[in-house]
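Researcher: Can you fold this with zinc ion in place?
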Amino acid sequence: MIYDVEYETMPREALEAIQLRRLKTTLERVCATVPFYRERMATAGIKPRDIQRLDDIRHIPFTTKQDLRDNYPFGMFAVPMDTVVRIHASSGTTGQPTVVGYTARDVNTWATLMARALVAGGATANDIIHNAYGYGLFTGGLGVHYGAEKLGASVIPVSGGNTRRQILIMRDFKPTVITATPSYVLHLAEVAEEMGVSFKDLSFKFGIFGAEPWSEKMRQEIERKLNITAVDIYGLSEVIGPGVAIECHEAKKGLHIFEDHFLPEIIDPASGEVLPPGETGELVFTSLTKEAFPVIRYRTRDITSLNPEPCVCGRTHVRMNRVSGRSDDMLIIRGVNVFPSQIESILMETSEVAPHYQLVVDREENLDTLTVRVEVGEGLFSDEVRQLQALERQISKNIKETLGVSAKVKLVEPHTIQRSEGKAVRVIDNRKI
Amino acid sequence: MHAQQISIFLENKAGRLAEVTGILAAAGVNIRALALADTSDFGVLRLIVDDNQKAENALKQGGLTVSKTDVVAVAVDDRPGGLHHILELLQNAGINVEYMYAFVQHSGANAVMIFRFDQPDDALKVLTADGLKVIEGRRLYTM
Ligand SMILES: [Zn+2]
C-alpha cells in the first residue's frame, strides 16, 4: 500500500522539477526572513537566483548543529512567533537544546509524511497503533501520533516507560502495530515473558522502529520474538522529526527519503565535497517545504549512503541505507542524544578542574546503560567516604536532570582511563549493534 | 597538638592495597597506623607514617591521589570505659567524631586512638581540660 501515490511514485524527472522549484522558493524565503542564512549566502557570494539546477546547491554553505545553537532559541525561525503552533527541542552538545518550530502547515506536512511512513511500514486506517515513543519535547511520540490520526488509525498514546502497564494494554486493547525504539521493544518482550504474556499470542503484525541505531541482527530478533514484520524509520527534529525516511515493508532494504519534501546529499565529512550516488559519507538535508524552521544543507553527522535503484514497492524516492555511524562523537542512549562534552560540562560544575572521565555504554537485557567513570584527582578527593558517595550521587543527579538519562557514576583512580596518543579515550561503546 | 594523616583514594581491586604498601616500603616509609574505609567500588586508605613528606612524594609519584588531614591522637586509659569516657565528653560538647581508629603502639600503659573531628580545635580544648593526654604529631610519628 502507498498512502500518497501521486507523490511517492512520481517519475524522477517530475520529482526533480518539483524539488528545484521548491528549493528556489525556500532559498528566497530564508534569505528574506532569516538573517543567518542571508549573511551566510552573502558571504559566500551566492544568491537564490544563481541556483539553476539541483546540483548548484553545492555552492551554498552548510548549516551545522553549532549554527543552530548560536541562534538559540528562535533565531533560525523563518516566520513570526504568532504563526508558530508547536515547539520541540532536542539536546545539544553543551546541554543547550536545539529548538525547532512548526507552523500549522508544517504540523500538517509532518502528519502526512508520518502517515506515508506508517503505511510504508504496513499500517492501515484499520490498525490500532501502540505508540511507545516518548511524548514531550522529543519529536518521536507526537510525530507518530499525528501521523496515525492523519491515517485514520486508532492510536494509543502510551509513551515510554511503565512497561508492565504497557503489556496489559497490549493484551487487552489488542494493538496491531507497535512504534518504539528497537531496544525498548526488546525490553518489552522480556518483561512480557516474565509476566507470562507471549508476544506471539498478541495481535501485532507490524512494528516501526527507530530513533537509535540498530542492526539487521536486531531486526531478526525482534521479528522472531514478536512474530511481526519490523521496519526502520529515520528522522531528526532539525529536519522535521520522525518521517524523513522509512523502509517499505515490501523490500525492507533501505529507507525511502521523502524527496518531495527533503533534498538529501552525501558529502565527504572531511572535505565537504558532494559524493556520487552509492558512496558512503555524511547525510545532508535541505528542507523543501518547511515554513517555520527551514534548514539549508544541514549536516546530520549520520554516516550512510544513498541507493537510487528502483524499488519493488513502486516508490520512486531514493533509499538511504542504515545509518552506520556518526561523523562526531554523539551517542544515542535509550533514544537520547548524549555528547561527551555535555558530561564534561556537568563535571566542571562539581570541580574547578575538569576531571578525566570516560563514558562506558553497554546493553544489558536490551536496555542501554551508561556508566561515567571519573578519575578522582585532588580537586575531587575527600578523605571521607560519605562525601565521595555524595559526589557520585550528585553527578548522577545532574546528568539525569540535564540530559534525561540515568547514569551510574564510578569513581576511579587517577591515570586509569586509557589514553590514546596522550588523548583520553572518552567513549567505550560495548553495545553489539 | 594536631597530627597529620595521609589519605589515599583507592579502587577496590585485588592487590591494590599491597601495591600501596609496596610503594611506601620502597621509599623507606614506616606505617605507624592504618585504616581502610571502603564501599563496594572504592575506598579511602588512612595512614599515619613516620615521614609524611617522603610518603606523600612517593605516593604521588606512584600516580595516587593523596591528601593530608588533621587528626588528633589521644592516649586512652587501657581499662573498661576508657574510650567511653572520651566519647561521652565529646558528645556533651557537641563535637562529632567523623571517624577513628587504633594506633599500633601503646603509650606507656595507655592505648592510642586516632580521631578525626568535625571541630578539631574545640575537641582539643575539651580533651586537655579533662586532663586527657593528646599526643603531638612529631612524637606520634616516631613513637
Ligand atoms: Zn520500497
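Model: Folded with zinc ion in place. The radius of gyration of chain A is 22 Å.
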